[in-house]
User: Which sequence fits this backbone?
């Protein structure tokens, strides 16, 4: 196994003239560098501490507490364990969380919780710093299992089970997903049939595809479960309901009669969690184990529900799942931040292709391509972080009851379904790019990229498959589009946008007007100014979403009235466009969140640098979809050609502030835990240069054969060529 | 941990009318389905066996032998091992390779080899099927360590060490890379200073950054190494040379005096290989341990070389490294094929969102987005596979001596540097997309995606960092561009292209002409025909490469004459464009390889389907870079807008042949070893549907509450609503 072998284009083998300072101290004067990058204008300076506070957001103290906990070595991921060892370690770590009161905030005050929803998720998101397995195992126990008892159960259930769930006396499962129905909860096939004779439900798995699968805590640790099953009473199937079931004997840890299962075994990551399969053979549970907040069966078997519509009832019961998506969204952003801090730190120290020369060579971060790779992802991480904070506040508003109308809940669902796919995919992309940007060192587990990436991989498909979630968003956009034509109301598509964008006229005709206004001026520089302008970015991004939705909406008009098969086929023939429209919408939400956050920054230096970063994000989005803007006449060829250069100039402007921007994430070495983020590379580089300096000073340095050849003198050194 | 929760847009909850056959046998009539997709025209049929032979290429028998070996369970990756257990297992597997004569083909006949270079690499590429760690560990032992002794040593060295290397008596390292110089071999700092008094070299590591790092076999198994160091004699540094060194005592396995090291520990993958670090403190080795084919030191210390130029000598010595790149290129394609066969097989069986309904619902592969995700990658995999075969033949020509001029070697280097980045990145992308396309099941190690992805991750940065390799390609393209202006010669840029494209006039003016010819015809359908035409695809792809190179070439004109720093800065300001041009060039090579392979297909059905696949590849490339074509006036807005639809229509055409196209890869279950590729999903689906059928027939099925509500009859079933 070896690495690379010769110089890339651009890395001249000629020694550079010694015009630059021979070495720069570890605490390099960033402001001076910044000044150079701005052509002598006074360089902006980032107020790192204030920016850090802004990034911590509304629940800053909770996050700080969670990070202090996540910094403790006993909670850190131990690498190189077998999956069984890792599972044992993580189970032990859960107790530490309990002892530190880290996971009870969301539970009712009646059982010792704090009824605090946003703060609970904020703290949970930070756990990814310690070990993603710990985070997700905690999520299974308290965010899913406990939360289901809390939200779907009633007071008696709370009193009976929540204390044991909270203190981990009852490790449990959230048994919803089945092997045959990963994404389609409504079609799960497990049944719970009421038997009035004994006042019991009979829980049964009718066939292999109906086994519960990928269930955390199922393989070894779960003593109980909330099992989702079709509730049948009196010959009627009332749809999916949740049942509390004991799974294992607390003493022997063996399955109770009628219950069986399998271990899902090793996974691509998150091996600290014992995922497994469960099946039930006519298992009888008391009637009162139905978590009956939204649907009850009386002793005689009669069913009742506060929600008459079975469809609405189903979505209400599943509504608490949004918490998982909100949690993963923020955790993914945190992981991206960890990776970027490490990779950017290393890139400011690592020199390539000239370490033995007499002068400083550029560090990796001075290369344009390296800046492109890392800064575009840094910009998106900021955007995703600000959007994540907005989502969390919305979640807290709904779950606290401060704003929990049906419309609020739908908006929350849509927002989560839009943001979670983008942030989880972005985390995988960022972790991989950072790992590659650090070369072979990036692949060593000691530098954590590969470990985090493996663990976060499944974030893209659990708690809502990203592709399916984006289709839900698209469905909502289409519905809003249909409404728009009925009553000139813009719906969720523009609700977040317009709310924050009071200065811009963002309606379809208005946008067309903006596009016209931005017609070619004949000057490349003016064209660039027009694109980089905040209102123009907003107009371009918004116009794209609206037009894409309108285009698909028109194409699908009347699809509902076609026979089932043709309607579905028509829909399917536009599926790709629909998903792209949903993604464009989600990106616009991120851009708006970044822009809204900019409005909160008062320090002029910070504001200037963050504006560059926001522009980099906005213009990168436009660049990625440039063909759309060109095909649809929204940008001229001439203006489009200026975009790449303008982005390149932004990279140069951001370069001197890159370390500040990742330092604002506020991680200490106890959070990063990456060997190459420790400054070790700088120490090695300094030692190497010191060696060569001393050698030259001593006069002992061997002469390079190339230099001898250039001088035309071989003789005295005994070198001769045998051939041509 | 749970999965997704409700229906995506497009998946109607209405039951489809039972117009389709209720179930289809495992051996579904593909031709009939194909016929449906072609609107009743006689459907093409793929000759899977013949296509399979074409894909196996020139060394088909060697590949078959290698696959038979890779099918043996004792060579398979065992999942869930610790890295130390995995290392022991893989070391044992190396002996099985030796016993089966699987790794000696490239060595000289004089020591029992076969002097067979292409076949050797072909067989090596297939080892990835068993375990990538086994592949790379074999690559370290025989492809790097043994190969260095073979290519850089002389007859005496061969006789002395090759037998022990071949039979694994001497496990060894290829100690080139240093911690401080991942990519820059010319700057390694380890020295080998000749001492004429004792006729020894003194090998020394001057500082920490000069430790050898990421070295396979270094942590535990390596008894010897080929160490690369700066050769110093008589006060002159003659540059990097290779030295044979003993590392460990064969009995105690302890380091010999003066040698030390560290274990690189757990990595992101490939944990069957014991990578480590090595350092040397004034270690003395005999003069004759210099592998002296390209540079010798006489007893008196005088240096001689058959290659006068130190630069050329360096590149000649490093030239054998190209074998590693060729090997990884093919292995990456093989891994992509494994993933696609599994994911496409599963997607033809898996039903989502309707398994309990009375009729068949679409399988995953019927969804447009799913087709986009998998078929575009299938097309690229075919292209990468054909290109890989061309590269391997070129490699064999050069290494067999049949065509090994300097120009041939440079072309080989450039071709390998172009293709290896694309195929290794593509493998990571494909493995990830396939894993996500299989949802939670894709994350289980039993389905292999995550395991292969983790192991192949480092393929993107070892044996030449992909980004650095693309810069080498760009450098060559620029050099050819400069030559073109001197003597109207197109150089490597078009050498492969024009050689295969005798029917198209591919020179700059010709291309401009083609672009003009393709000006709008006013008809969307004609426009699509124009784009999909083979000559048009070639013209568009070639024009882009040439224009990008010309644009950067013009921008950089005179950069060499600027002062060093300004010249480098100018170069750096175009680094991103340069890398993009190199990538476009490599994609064109893949497209040409695919097109050349099409020319070998005689069966009309196979040819038709493969042409669709090649078109999908070509048009996807154009779609990915559509903004370039628009900005540069190569495609009109109108024509560009037809592209997406045309691609969507290709997906529909390819759909009925998808299984044939992956079956042609020729893998058996012993190669795939993925639970979801076994047909288990179909068995589960059939069982589930059988259950519901029987239930309906028996009259025992519970009635759905929604249906009761629709009928407006609740009474007899005891259901009542408590609220609105």
Assistant:
């Amino acid at each position: 196994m070896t690495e690379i072998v010769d110089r890339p284009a651009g890395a001249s083998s000629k020694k550079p003239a010694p015009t630059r300072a021979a070495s720069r101290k570890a605490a390099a004067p960033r402001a001076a560098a910044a000044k150079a990058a701005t052509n002598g204008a006074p360089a902006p300076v980032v107020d790192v501490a204030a920016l850090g506070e802004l990034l911590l957001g509304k629940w800053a103290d909770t996050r700080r507490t969670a990070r202090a906990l996540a910094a403790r070595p006993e909670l850190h991921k131990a690498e190189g364990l077998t999956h069984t060892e890792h599972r044992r370690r993580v189970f032990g770590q859960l107790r530490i969380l309990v002892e530190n009161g880290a996971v009870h905030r969301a539970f009712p005050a009646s059982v010792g919780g704090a009824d605090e929803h946003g703060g609970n998720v904020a703290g949970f998101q930070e756990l990814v710093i310690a070990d993603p397995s710990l985070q997700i195992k905690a999520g299974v126990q308290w965010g899913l299992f406990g939360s289901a008892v809390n939200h779907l159960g009633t007071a008696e259930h709370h009193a009976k089970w929540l204390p044991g769930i909270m203190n981990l006396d009852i490790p449990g499962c959230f048994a919803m997903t089945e092997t045959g129905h990963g994404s389609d909860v409504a079609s799960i096939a497990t049944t719970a049939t009421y038997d009035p004779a004994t006042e019991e439900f009979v829980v049964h798995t009718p066939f292999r595809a109906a086994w519960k699968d990928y269930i955390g805590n199922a393989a070894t640790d779960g003593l109980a479960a909330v099992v989702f099953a079709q509730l049948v009473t009196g010959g009627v199937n009332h749809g999916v309901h949740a049942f509390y079931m004991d799974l294992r004997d607390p003493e022997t840890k063996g399955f109770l009669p009628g219950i069986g299962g399998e271990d899902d075994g090793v996974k691509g990551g998150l091996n600290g969690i014992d995922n497994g399969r469960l099946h039930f053979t006519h298992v009888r549970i008391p009637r009162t184990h139905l978590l009956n907040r939204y649907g009850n069966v009386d002793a005689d078997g009669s069913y009742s529900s506060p929600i008459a519509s079975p469809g609405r009832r189903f979505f209400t019961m599943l509504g608490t799942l949004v918490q998982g998506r909100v949690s993963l969204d923020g955790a993914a952003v945190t992981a991206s931040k960890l990776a970027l801090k490490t990779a950017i730190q290393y890139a400011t120290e690592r020199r390539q292709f000239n370490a033995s020369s007499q002068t400083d060579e550029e560090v990796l971060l001075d290369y344009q391509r390296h800046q492109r790779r890392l800064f575009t992802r840094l910009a998106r991480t900021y955007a995703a972080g600000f959007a994540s904070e907005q989502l969390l506040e919305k979640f807290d508003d709904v779950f606290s009851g401060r704003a929990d109308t049906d419309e609020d809940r739908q908006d929350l669902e849509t927002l989560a379904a839009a943001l979670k796919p983008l942030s989880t995919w972005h985390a995988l992309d960022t972790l991989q790019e950072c790992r590659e940007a650090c070369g072979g060192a990036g692949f060593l587990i000691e530098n954590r990229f590969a470990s985090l990436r493996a663990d976060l991989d499944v974030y893209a498909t659990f708690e809502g498959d990203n592709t399916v979630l984006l289709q839900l968003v698209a469905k909502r956009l289409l519905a809003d589009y249909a409404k728009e034509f009925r009553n000139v109301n813009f719906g969720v598509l523009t609700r977040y946008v317009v709310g924050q964008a009071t200065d811009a006229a963002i309606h379809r005709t208005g946008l067309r007007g903006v596009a016209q206004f931005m017609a070619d001026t004949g000057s490349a520089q003016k064209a660039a100014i027009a694109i980089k302008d905040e209102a123009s970015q907003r107009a371009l991004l918004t116009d794209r979403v609206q037009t894409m939705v309108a285009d698909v909406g028109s194409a699908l008009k009347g699809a509902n009235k076609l026979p089932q098969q043709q309607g579905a086929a028509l829909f399917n023939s536009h599926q790709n466009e629909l998903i792209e429209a949903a993604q464009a919408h989600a990106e616009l939400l991120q851009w708006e969140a970044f822009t809204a956050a900019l409005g909160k920054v008062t320090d002029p230096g910070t504001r200037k640098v963050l504006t560059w970063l926001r522009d980099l994000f906005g213009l990168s989005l436009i660049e990625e979809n440039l063909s759309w803007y060109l095909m649809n006449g929204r940008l001229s060829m001439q203006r489009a050609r200026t975009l790449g250069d303008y982005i390149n100039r932004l990279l140069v402007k951001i370069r001197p502030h890159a370390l500040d921007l990742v330092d604002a994430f506020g991680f200490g070495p106890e959070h990063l835990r990456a060997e190459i983020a420790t400054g070790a590379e700088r120490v090695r580089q300094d030692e190497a240069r010191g060696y060569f300096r001393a050698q030259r000073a001593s006069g002992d340095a061997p002469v390079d054969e190339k230099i001898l050849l250039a001088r035309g003198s071989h003789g005295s050194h005994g070198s001769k060529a045998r051939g041509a």
